[in-house]
Amino acid sequence: MGGRASELVEPEARQPESAAPDPGVGSGSGGAPPGAESGVLAFDRWAEYLTKVLFLIAGVGLVGMLVLILSDVIGIKVFAKPVRGGIEFVTFFAVVTIAFAVPHTLLMRGHVSVDFIVDHLPRRLRLVIDILMILLGVVLLSLLTRYGFKYAGDLRASGEVSMTQKIPFYPFVYGMAVSFAATLLILLLDLVKAVRKALKTWTR
Known about the structure:
- With about 200 residues, the protein is mostly helical.
- It has one domain (about 35-200).
- It has five helices and no strands.
- The longest helix is centred in the N-terminal third of the chain and has 45 residues, at about 35-80.
- The two termini are about 25 Å apart.
- The model is unreliable at about 1-30 (pLDDT under 50).
């Protein structure tokens, strides 16, 4: 899913001032009208803001997990009394930390990608493979988002809670579904950029 994503978002090389404008840009031949360009940029900024908010929540979850583990260790070693339900709390904090960090990690191209074979392919074929990989990611995240919200609704209806602290599961599943939706949004933006890049390359 990461694939050649870093290549997709690199800015286009600026044309020299003396060069004649490209008639294909903005005229439907591989380009996009100014309105569509500004719309994509605005959507991109909004998605970046959303992922930052989720990433901040993930950071809070990480700090909470560390504080809880430290408190549990001190409670056991010093007072011979562990934190009640500590394992459950750590599990929930871990869910928040991992799930909410995924969209921002994708936006920053932090996922591992193995592309030593793709690097040796022709440029046009690489662009096609990039689009196919992003499409697979879109399909996967669409399913995760849909069934994530559905599963959270089922948990809410059933009233399922944790064994020790009786914490309901559904808010955390809803959070995961929101994270999946944000990740899907990033992939859709990558898909738009990849298709536009491919059109510009293939129509030259």
